[in-house]
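Researcher: Quick one. two chains, 824 residues in total.
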Amino acid sequence: MNIKEVLTAEENEKLFMLGNEAAVRGALEAGVGLASTYPGTPSSEIGDVLSRIAKDAGLYFEFSANEKVALEVAAAAAASGLRSFTFMKHVGMNVAADSFMSLAYTGVRGGMVILSADDPSIFSSQNEQDNRHYARIANVPMLEPSNPQEIKDLMKYGFELSEEFQTPVLMRTTTRVSHMRGVVELGNWDESTGKKKGFFKRDPKRFVPVPAAAIEMHRTLVEKMEKMSDVASSSPLNRIFDRGGKVGVVTSGSAFNYVMDVVEENDLDLNVLKLTLSYPFPEELVLKFVENLESVVVVEEVDPVMEKEVLAVLGKHGLKKQVHGKLDDTFPTIYEYSPDIILEGLSRALNKNLKQKEVSETEIPIPARPPTFCPGCPHRATYYSVRKVVEDMGLENVVHPSDIGCYTLGVAAPYNAADYLLSMGSSVGTSCGFSKATNQKIVSFIGDSTFFHAGIAPLLNAVHNKDRFVLVILDNRTTAMTGGQPNPGIPVDGMGDEAPEISIEDIVKGTGVKFLKTIDPLFMKKSQETIEEAINYDGVAVLISRSPCMLIKSKEQKKRDVYHLEVIEEKCKNCEKCLELACPAISSHNGSIIIDQLLCRKCNVCLQVCPERAIGVKTALKNQ
Amino acid sequence: MKSYNIYISGVGGQGIIKTSIVIGEAAMKSSVNVVMSEIHGMSQRGGVVSTELKLGDAKSPIIEKGAADMLLAFEPLEALRAVPKINENASVVMNTSPTYPFNIKESSAPYPDIQVIVDEIKSKSAQVFAFDAEKIAKDAGHILSLNMVMLGGAVAVPGFPLDKKVVMEAMKNNLPEKSLKINVKAFEKGFQSSKKIQVD
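Model:
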């Protein structure tokens, strides 16, 4: 599929779409006027697609500085009568939560959908928090799609529900739904769908939650939710699959898929209740579902959220029915599910041995294949140099607070460059704490996009409170981890237009930092001298380590295409210094060092590390 | 109908997701329902990449242990890692050219001998189509056409549920125009490689 087809494909056409692509099509069909995000796996592709089609679709899209800003941009648009869409990974909701909570109080005028992409089993995150809780804390409705078709359809429904009740709607996907592909039948869209410019009519009683107003807003909010509970009970989105059984399963999202496949495959007489509009919890519907059941099994990822709701409904109505789920250890309390886990869980719940397929195992020990920095990645050079300077200076117990991005991979040997991590921007805030709580040297790391996102406020905190640490800002000129989206330091915006390039140097100077130097990590000797200077500085020292991500096809790299690096066998003494870089392009086979020409990106770092000058530059034949 | 389950594994950068999309689209064009799972993010930095496809009436793309009808392994070590997904009736198409983990020197488990891997896979499945896809891709004109060599190899396997012609159309819809010629050549070479093994 060509990505443009998200925009150009016509009604009733079928596309093989990623969940995240389907979200974009759904937003288009719903007539979204504004969309915003901060990139985060597993939601990133929504922004990638939007940035490619927004202009042609006639809507506004931006990569915001962080999730809180993204939510605020979309909230203001919805208050102005536009349909707005903001999306982020689950932990992004934590960043946006402050404004999100107030937004639930003020409500919206135009429809607003907030998509939170959760990451059960932590494929690419720092936790696996279950954001269904956010619907409950804030008192907003929750939609839980199970596949790309549902994502697309629910986008439209979400905006309608949002406008009907003047409330933002939270949609929760998980990695397996966002990154699932399936056949999606499209609805109608054309450029005239939806408003692209709104008008903000002031109404402070509604939009300014000072105490006197907020106290009324909360009452209104609770009333809305009570009404919506009836909507949830009668909605066709919440569907009973009646197979005439005495045991029923309540499920949602990806877990629903597994349940249905296991039920069909094993021909089980289980009734299934799929909850798609899962909050407000559809009390009446659940009562109807359990009426003739002997027991209920709740199958959900990650926390026992619906299970507690079911128990509450049964308790409220004095019904005595067995409930199986996470709370009685029928199902695991952590991580994502799979068909195998469902089969085991249902075996326990039904107290019968459901057939498991014969599983082949191999006796051969299998080496792990951990992810690492790409060949040519500038982070490798920065970490190698910091490590070398620290060792040469004879420093011990240096603390390396780290942050969120590709560079967090520096936690592994041989770099060992991440000692403490909490969240986006935490490298700087925790450096302040280590600086006060210990006498240890502190060298912390943060990426360019993460610095813009949440690193600036803690940096001025550090200056004001007279902390002492080195902050290395790894400026690789992109938001690399999530696939290379622009950030405020890049002269391009989410619409693909030229944009002001915010200077990290200017920001750092503005916070009052006195020691500020910029290095190119690929020039190692000079870099190491500057790193030493920074470590010796008494106060807050900032080093900007600037070199573009190797995944960006720069002019600089095209120049590198004309040569390649080779080990000069006569000079190589096999000291394996180059292997300490842990570069995927350098390996040792039968006692000789080999540089893989396909992988090598010619960053020339190994050449500078080799004490024997045994790595040489050769003019290459352009054959690969 | 019971679904035909394909597990595809290899290393980041080998074009596994693109290959999977081609299969999925070909299924859709053949009016066969299809669901697919892919993992983005951390796994792409030289780590393991895998996708799972179910062709037929399945809601979830996640393949149960021992339920893959086909394993398409872009790298020998990753074929071995995927053994729990297959059963004795499975067909395996595998590349024999290794990509060593960057830290293999420090690894407590050495990289197994390629022939040992192939023999192990043979003992765990019904039929194995093993060939050096890297070499074949280079012969076709570009090493990056390795994924189309593998795809061609898969389509030639007896019991593969999609028509060669439809798969090739889906290829054209998903690959850049300028590299299409090389990719088609790579696909044909992969197809012939599996056919030849079948004849032998």
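Residues 378-546 of chain A form a domain with the Rossmann fold fold (CATH 3.40.50.970).
Researcher: Thanks, that's what I needed.
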